Amino acid sequence: MKGYIEFDRFIDLEASLEQLFAQIQREPMSPTSWKWAIIAAHSALQASMCIALRGSVGFDTWKPRHVKIWLEAYEKSEDLPDPHLDYFMELFSKLFDGQSGIDGYAINWLNESRNNLVHFNTDHYAIEREYVICAITASVSAMIVASTRSKGIFFYNEQQQLRFNTFCESILARLKVLVNG
Question: Cis omega before residue 83 (within 30°)?
Fold first, then answer.
């Protein structure tokens, strides 16, 4: 559509992975690089969870109250409301349900840290480098698992899957270097 900038969940996932990889490649890693790496990892994981959960309708990605409101409007042939995406940790619980081997503590830490960095409301904020690396590693592992738990189509073509796998492998390899650096 001419004049519009279009986005979709996979574009968001891929752009977030690209941003994450760009941030962790910086030499030296600045505090700003770490901040944007956390934000990008969170964004990529949220996108991958939403892709995996969307199924044919997407109800599993919405807040339960909004599913109910939307369905009531649909049944009454009323204007359909814009549903709200469910909370990050709720999406995580819906997709992984404690059975994934993914470090839920690290994912929760990533979510809390991202929220603190995006809604920065103090004069100073400090986080341990080791926790950042652990949380980003857990998020990439969760993305890989999410791609195998999809309730619908996760990748629409081989190129998407190839780029996704390449980004994930490259990010995990770089994180191993950062652990020792």
Answer: no
Task: Round to whole Å and give the CA distance between 128 and 99.
Answer: 28
Assigned token pair, 73 = 């409007």
**124 class by beta-carbon count within 10 Å (0-12 exposed, 13-18 middle, 19+ buried):** exposed
What's the pLDDT score for residue 42?
Answer: 98
Decide if 3 contacts 24 (C-beta within 8 A).
Answer: no
Residue 96 near residue 142 (C-beta atoms within 8 A) = yes
Sign of the four-CA dihedral 52, 147, 23, 12: negative
* pTM for the model: 0.90
Q: What is the mean pLDDT of the chain?
A: 90
- Residue segments in the chain with a per-residue pLDDT below the cut of 50: none
Q: What 3-state DSSP class applies to 58?
A: coil
The pLDDT value given to residue 160: 93
| Domain residue extents for the chain | 9-53+101-180
C-beta separation of 62 from 85 below 8 A: yes
Looking at the DSSP assignment, which residues form a beta bridge with residue 162?
A: none
- Quote the strand ranges of 26-177, DSSP E: none
CA dihedral 13, 68, 63, 160 (to 10 degrees): -10
What local confidence, expressed as pLDDT, does residue 56 receive?
Answer: 63
